[in-house]
Design brief:
Helices cover about 75% and strands about 0% of the residues. It has about 150 residues and is mostly helical. α4 packs parallel to α6.
């Protein structure tokens, strides 16, 4: 028996898995391994409050997602617009991430603003892409298909 729901083309699952794989770069580069260290050491100049500022920016972004995410998800479901929301959130994440290039020494407000923008868009995209999984995979194969991403 196939892990996929009837009528689901392999290219749909491939596209879903590749989106999931590709956006892992954001978490690695921006959130955990590169930009956060750059923010603390260069943008904020190793100030005693730098790590707190970084953490606060992420907390604000996730608070926004907690409020906006369910509303946006309900709207996307009601209007059959998940792909459109995914496209917009991806584009906003890209623009927000590109804007982080303007995070020069001392540009703390700039960096915080665009970390919030990019991370809100990233998290919304994560929520939306996850909403496609039940459409792609049979209930008993959700874990298997999710692992492909």
């Amino acid at each position: 028996m196939s892990a996929l729901n009837p009528g689901v083309a392999r290219r749909e699952v491939w596209a879903w898995a590749m989106y999931d794989f590709a956006n892992s770069g954001y978490t690695t580069v921006v959130l955990t391994a590169v930009f956060n260290a750059y923010f603390v050491s260069v943008v904020a100049g190793n100030a005693p409050w730098a790590t707190f500022a970084w953490t606060a920016a992420l907390a604000v972004s996730y608070a926004i997602v907690m409020v906006v995410g369910p509303i946006l998800g309900a709207w996307a479901d009601a209007h059959a617009a998940k792909k459109r929301v995914l496209l917009v959130s991806t584009m906003v994440c890209i623009v927000g991430t590109l804007a982080l290039a303007g995070s020069t020494p001392g540009a703390v407000a700039w960096a915080v603003a665009f970390v919030i923008v990019s991370n809100v868009a990233y998290a919304i995209g994560e929520n939306v892409v996850a909403a496609f999984l039940p459409e792609l995979a049979r209930p008993e194969a959700l874990g298997k298909v999710s692992g492909w991403g």
